[in-house]
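Worked example 3. Consider a protein that binds zinc ion.
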Amino acid sequence: MDMDRVLIFDTTLRDGEQSPGATLNSEEKFAIAKQLARLGVDIIEAGFPASSPGDLQAVRRIALEVEGPTICGLARCVRRDIEAAAEAIKDAPKGRIHTFISTSDIHLEHQLRMTREEVIQRTREMVELARSFCDDVEFSPMDAGRSDPQFLYAVLATAIAAGATTLNIPDTVGYTMPTEFGAMIEGIRQHVPGIEGAIISVHCHNDLGLAVANSLAGVNAGARQVECTINGLGERAGNAALEEIVMGIYTRRNYFNLTTNIRTEELYPTSRMVATYTGLAVQANKAIVGANAFAHESGIHQDGVLKYSQTYEIMDAKTIGLQESTLVLGKLSGRHAFRDKLEQMGYHLDDEQLNRAFARFKQLADLKKLVTERDIEALISDEVYQPQEVFSLEHVQVTCGDHALPTATVALKAPGGETIVDASHGTGPVDAVYKAINRIIQVPNELIEFSVNAVTEGIDAVGEVTIRIEAMLDAENGLPMNPQTGQKTRIFSGHGADTDIIVASARAYMSALNKLLSILDPSVVKERIVAK
Ligand code: KIV
Ligand code: ZN
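Given these inputs, the predicted complex is written out as structure tokens:
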């Protein structure tokens, strides 16, 4: 192990997917895993295979087809979970099983209902079982941040003796302060027999906004793996944000004297992809990848930056893959130039995706004089990061105004190829469009979030719409319950972009509905939706 390098363990597809409403389908997970490999993460925690057959299959596909990183599956210290994780990662050139059990008294008493001795015995047996399948085994004492240090040391020593190669220390509820967390890692290094032969990892949650600070305190104290997620997604307030950890280590290399394997120019495109697929937008003032992270508003700051960028900038935006928002291509630009620009911006499309994106670019270039990189990003999110279409939007038309009843007509192409047209009125143009679509695709759902953003300044700006819908799931309407949580409702996000925000809104709704439809049995779609 190179002690000058910090391993980046990405858990966007596992802990990140536990963010409320961030469900990803298997295609989206696969696309994100490929992008994480391009980003250069060392380990991808691809899912929790025992949680559902779908998750097992998604981890399997990533293990088989994504080259580069170690592919990891999560498992409780339970035989069935470990067997599922082993099955899911068995074809990976580099596979890992990550198993965990709680160690805090509060979890032992109220959740596990186990004694400390039972936890030690279970740890030994399950780590040994995991090692019988795989040489690379990670063990986590859940809620370590609130555990009795002496008991924690004993459990970690047991895991090492049973064959664990990485010991991950989670602050599961985001409770610790950076100095405490650093001291905890230091204590582990001093008191756990055999720890010198293992990698210490940290996994911090952000309930008090300290996930990144705690993780970096852990690194300072000797941890050499950080578990983190793109955009800081994760359970409740999320996990440590990968981009912040990486740029902290990179920008303050004179302080840490450490490196990571991350290709930093891929950070921004990865953030965009994850935000689009999960429907969880990045807040404007978010460090590193937020829209304002490199914007200077005050006159004094602008003056300083113009004279010498480092007066108010500690990082160069290009380092994270952010290009300047200037005119890049016009309506005479060819396919070649368009592809080169996309590559430069960190988007790697296959031929089919490129063709679709190029057609949309040409339409946009006809409408807008200046096509900026921000416009191109919006267009890629709208055209490429979309689910497989079950129904597609052919046409949308609205009438509205202060003395008119908002009315919409929509035409959708059904799975069989026929065009279905319907119309509705509503409280506003978007409501009318959504109601007209609902008259064709009759799956009960509720719009729970709607946001619209102008991508650039100016009256001709592209509008990006992000929505979330909550679908009611039951046998009667043919919708399966969420296999992971058993919940009767499930949230789907959708994203659309267009210079016309009504069209962008219609596209966003179709994107969310297509995700919903894709989890239904095709016969349900055919009988209950198409053949009404
Ligand atoms: O937060 C946590 O404790 C976890 C474990 C499964 C590592 O996510
Ligand atoms: Zn976690």
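Take a moment to read the result before moving on. The pocket of zinc ion (ligand 2) is lined by residues 15, 170, 172, 203, 205, 235 (CB under 6 Å). The first helix runs from residue 26 to 39.
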